[in-house]
């Protein structure tokens, strides 16, 4: 479905309304209250029938040492700028991890942040590092746009160079391209990771129209994306791993690390490696050999066609 499809503008408007900071804050806090029980906090459950799972507002307010009225106003987004200490107290009572805690701060204590620059330029030093990396590596924006890659990354996932620039986006590829999706053995985990990263980025730069458009398109076109988005997962891409299913070398597992520099915090250099001495390392070595041979054939054909 393209952006020119009738009704698309209304759909995007609806998505933007759904991403309203105040409603998102309330939805997130309610989803995290549902994960906790009074016993988790050493509290005696309040009497009466429970209409929703997890902590009641009164119980969370007690655990965070807040008045019930104050917490209700926080959950409803009616506090202009609650202190960091109060937000931290609520986060601790809810047992939030580091990424979820940062996400809550982004929603409850919004800062003026500009959307990341739309330029796809990659610094020469980063491009040189990428070209000389002997494992699959690529450079991504926080919303998953693929800015640059080496041949092994293209062989592992998809030939990004054959795609129009607007389609070089990992969330779009994983949710809308069956061939790319089939490369991930544990597709659900990869899909959830991507949704989690988009959630975090949407709280960090809520005025990013490109991000809002991407989320709107995926929500409309992918029931799986809409399902996962509704669960409010939050995560930052730092490290992890994926099991791949490659048509040439079969299944193997790679770990990844993501790096950002202080002067370019909106992009990440992501490299993937196999454990030394493992069958995964042998599969990666085979993929590298196949990629090098394919590159040699392509260069030879290019020379012959001149």
Automatic annotation (TrEMBL):
InterPro entries: Cro/C1-type_HTH, Lambda_DNA-bd_dom_sf, MLTR_LBD. Residues 54-101 form the HTH cro/C1-type domain. Gene3D superfamilies: 3.30.450.180, lambda repressor-like DNA-binding domains. It holds the Pfam family HTH_31. One of its GO terms (molecular function) is DNA binding. This is Helix-turn-helix protein.
């Amino acid at each position: 479905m393209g952006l020119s499809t009738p009704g698309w503008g209304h759909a995007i408007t609806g998505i933007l309304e759904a991403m309203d900071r105040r409603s998102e804050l309330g939805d997130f806090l309610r989803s995290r209250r549902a994960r906790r029980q009074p016993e988790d906090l050493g509290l005696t459950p309040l009497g009466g029938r429970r209409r929703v799972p997890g902590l009641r507002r009164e119980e969370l307010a007690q655990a965070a040492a807040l008045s019930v009225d104050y917490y209700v106003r926080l959950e409803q987004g009616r506090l202009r700028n609650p202190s960091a200490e109060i937000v931290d107290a609520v986060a601790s009572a809810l047992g939030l991890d580091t990424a979820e805690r940062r996400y809550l701060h982004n929603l409850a204590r919004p800062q003026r942040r500009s959307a990341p620059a739309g330029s796809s330029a990659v610094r020469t030093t980063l491009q040189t590092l990428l070209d000389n990396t002997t494992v699959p590596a690529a450079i991504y924006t926080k919303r998953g746009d693929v800015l640059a890659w080496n041949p092994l990354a293209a062989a592992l996932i998809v030939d990004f160079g054959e795609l129009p620039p607007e389609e070089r986006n990992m969330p779009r590829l994983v949710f809308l391209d069956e061939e790319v999706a089939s490369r991930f053995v544990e597709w659900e985990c990869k899909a959830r990771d991507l949704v989690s990263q988009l959630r975090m980025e949407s709280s960090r730069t809520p005025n990013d129209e490109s991000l809002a458009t991407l989320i709107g398109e995926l929500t409309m076109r992918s029931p799986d994306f809409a399902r996962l988005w509704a669960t409010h997962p939050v995560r930052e891409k730092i490290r992890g791993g994926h099991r791949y299913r490659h048509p040439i070398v079969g299944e193997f597992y790679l770990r990844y690390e993501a790096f950002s520099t202080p002067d370019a915090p909106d992009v990440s250099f992501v490299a993937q490696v196999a454990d030394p001495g493992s069958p995964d390392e042998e599969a990666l070595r085979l993929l590298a050999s196949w990629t090098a041979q394919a590159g040699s054939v392509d260069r030879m054909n290019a020379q012959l066609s001149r």
